[in-house]
Amino acid sequence: MEKYFNKNFYNISSVKDEISKLLSKTNSSVYYMFKLENLRGIWIDIVGEKLCNLTYPEYIYKNTLCVYCKHSGLIQSLNFYKNEILKKIQNKMPELKITDIYFSMKKK
What we know:
Elements: H1 12-26, H2 28-47, H3 49-54, E1 55-61, E2 64-69, H4 72-80, H5 82-92, E3 100-105
Parallel strand pairs: 2-3
Antiparallel strand pairs: 1-2
Helix pairs in contact: 1-2
């Protein structure tokens, strides 16, 4: 059992970092999918618990994050806070290089 234990991995965070490094060298689309999953994991820290339940970061296209909203009224409200949300994303995950956020209704 000892030979299978890698001493470089101390917690799940270090494993995620190593996977991220490997993916960034291989396939950029897989890398961004992995990073998007990481963003979804910290989405509650970025927008808060209430908005986390009403919004969902769906995909990244040309440095723009598309966020689906459950209600159309949220789109206008979130556009007022777009710069604050963008700064939080850039502080927590600068490697994504997100420059804009697009809010839309969730497709049915």
